[in-house]
Write the structure tokens for this entry.
Amino acid sequence: MVSASPSQIKPQAVRTALRLIARLDIKGANLIKGVQLEGLRVVGDPQIHAAKYYQDGADEIIYMDTVASLYGRNNLVDVVSRATEHVFVPITVGGGIRSVEDARTLLRAGADKIAINTAAVKEPKLISQLSDVWGSSTVVLSIEAKKIGEKKWEAYTDNGRERTGLDVAQWAETGAKMGAGEIFVTSVDQEGTKKGFDCELVESITRNVDIPVIASGGFGSPEHLGQLVDFANPTGVAIADSLHYNRHSFEQIRSFCLANGIATRDFKSITKIGS
């Protein structure tokens, strides 16, 4: 048997407190939701939902402008600016961010992190440019993934409509090397189905990068979260449908985590931020 040298052995990932994130997909002034990023329907006012999720214990909020890629601009400046009046956890914004100036506008409006997808695919050096200005902790590489074969996934853009030809795991690794401080991966196949996360997809990324990985797409029950954590050990999970339609609450999810040995942030410490 051939033994690996100490330098070849990758240290086992340390399981940190799982971040529970509310995902809000925005079209115009409305919070919307669909299945597999299609058939989008209006859910309500994003301000009301964001405020509720913050009060209920969300660790973070992520806003994704679902039509930004069609118009070449992000329309969330006002949404983010208003959210900062009543949301006191980190806010990530994605969609239509194509330049350092676009990012600066949103950060000035109150965003803490910037998520880029289409622009990064077209111009990968944008990842480094943003990281050089604000640091890697501000830069999130957003990846929309579709399964194309056995343990193979391709990165898509434009809300899961446009193929890129990029292997998801390789693209995530490239993004990390170029300065992204976080990977936000959405399984388009599982998104909105409530059938569970694509655990193999997430694990293909977590095993290859040393930066936080957030999984999105497929949450339907706390048990799905447990399966994902055991298999892929992500840094966080983004939840949308189950929160929007009151199928599950952050309190229920945290209770499940506590009962199953999954560390999460103390809700009391979160509420003190806005007190």
Remarks:
- The two ends are 59 Å apart (CA to CA).
